[in-house]
Amino acid sequence: QVQLVESGGGLVQAGGSLRLSCAVSAGIFSPISVMGWFRQAPGKERQFLASIGWTGGRTDYADSVKGRFTVSRDNAKNTVNLQMNSLKPEDTARYYCAAQTGYSRDYEHWGQGTQVTVSS
């Protein structure tokens, strides 16, 4: 069983920064392979932002956030972070972390999300 809890969202002015965290809890029968960050704004589809391999640490980013967002992991603390810099009003959305487990290529486990609002 996998549980994901996001934190760190809030209200920030354009140009500012926020650091989101995702606390990961997984049973031994649900080994995490990849962690991802997504967002969804009202009326829009869910958007992939970044991912990181749980063991190897390989990262991948959407073009829209490359250079502004950085994903990292702390295996000792079982957390995955998303550092967001140079935030823009269009970054306003609910942000979710998600997990792939085992050999699955699907993000089958999701947190409840944390709201990020960027004011102009």
Mean pLDDT: 95
- What form results from the Cα inertia axes? globular
Which percent bin holds the helix content? under 10%
Number of strands: 11
Specify the biggest β-sheet: 7 strands, mixed
Oligomer: single chain
User: What is the succession of H and E elements?
Assistant: EEEEEEEEEEE
How much β-strand is present in the residues?
A: over 45%
Structural class: mainly beta
Q: Low-confidence spans: pLDDT under 50, at least 5 residues? A: none
End-to-end C-alpha gap: 40 Å
Write down the Rg. Answer: 14 Å
Helix segment tally: 0
Question: Could you please describe the fold and organization of this structure?
Answer:
This protein has 120 residues and is an all-beta fold. Helix content is 0%, strand content 56%. It has strands at 2-7, 10-13, 18-26, 32-40, 47-53, 59-61, 69-74, 79-84, 93-101, 109-110, 114-119. Strands 2, 4, 5, 6, 9, 10 and 11 form a seven-stranded mixed beta sheet that branches. The chain has a four-stranded antiparallel beta sheet with strand order 1-3-8-7, with no helix packed on it. The termini are far apart. The relative contact order is 0.32. The mean pLDDT is 95.
Task: Give a quick set of tags describing it.
120 residues; mainly beta; 7-stranded mixed sheet; globular
Brief synopsis:
This protein is mainly β and 120 residues long. It is 0% helix and 56% strand. The strands form 2 sheets. Strands 2, 4, 5, 6, 9, 10 and 11 form a 7-stranded mixed beta sheet that branches.
Describe the SSE topology.
Blueprint: E1 2-7, E2 10-13, E3 18-26, E4 32-40, E5 47-53, E6 59-61, E7 69-74, E8 79-84, E9 93-101, E10 109-110, E11 114-119
Parallel strand pairs: 2-11
Antiparallel strand pairs: 1-3, 3-8, 4-5, 4-9, 5-6, 7-8, 9-10, 9-11
